[in-house]
Amino acid sequence: MEWTVSTLVSILAALIPVAAIAYQFYSPPAVTSIDEANAEADKETEPEEEKPKTIMQAARTDLDPPKDDPFTMEQLKEFDGSNADKPIYVAIKGTVFDVSHKKETYGPGGSYNLFAGKDASKALGKSSLKEEDASSDYSSLPPNELKVLNDWHEFFAKRYNIVGRVIDLPPPASNL
Ligand code: HEM
Predict the structure, then answer these.
(1) Could you tell me the distance, in angstroms and rounded to a whole number, from the CA of residue 76 to the centre of ligand 1?
(2) Does residue 112 have its Cβ closer than 6 Å to ligand 1?
(3) May I ask which residue range the UniProt record assigns to the signal sequence (predicted)?
């Protein structure tokens, strides 16, 4: 048989419907698990540069050297934001942080005013905004909540100046 242009054209024409049918039945390899699906999704949206992982304020590099001034719990109360002339302090595990530059958060009417002027370690560990949990005694916290509390301490230490420590926290009450 002679291979003319018209023969080739008719062979190609015959192949087109075959290819179209084959394509209809073709589906991409099935993703077998959610993990694989997520990995695929990640690949597609791989960011050019690392995006910030949190909406929280960034850690600071301009903090003052930590101070070790003693505060009684009574003295600490004066720094709850109710007196606009005084700084606002939050204590965590006895460390006193100056949070004055986040007045809208810790000052009067702020979402986290509950933490101002006191050591409310227990509430931070429990992720609680209840007044009854705003206590320095975190002895009842299970390990996972102790971790949360320690993470908060670290968070504050990277963002707020340490101005002292609370010297008269009551001994942790036993939860037994
Ligand atoms: C619906 C629940 C909650 C939402 C939507 C929420 C939202 C937020 C947001 C948007 C911020 C960043 C604020 C900022 O940088 O100005 C923040 C910070 C914070 N949240 Fe919450 N929060 C919630 C629950 C809680 C609870 C239960 C606690 C109790 C421990 C808590 C403690 C904190 C603290 C200590 C900060 C750090 C503020 C700072 O010093 O920058 N939050 N939260």
Answers:
(1) 22
(2) yes
(3) 1-22
Is residue 57 in contact with ligand 1, taking CB distance under 6 Å? Answer: yes
The pTM of this model reads 0.73
Write the pLDDT tens digit of every residue in 17-75.
545 444 444 444 444 455 554 454 455 444 545 555 677 889 999 999 999 999 999 99
Q: Which of 53, 56, 63, 119 to probe ligand 1 with, by most ligand atoms within 8 A of CB?
A: 56
The CA 53 to ligand 1 mean position distance, Å, reads 15
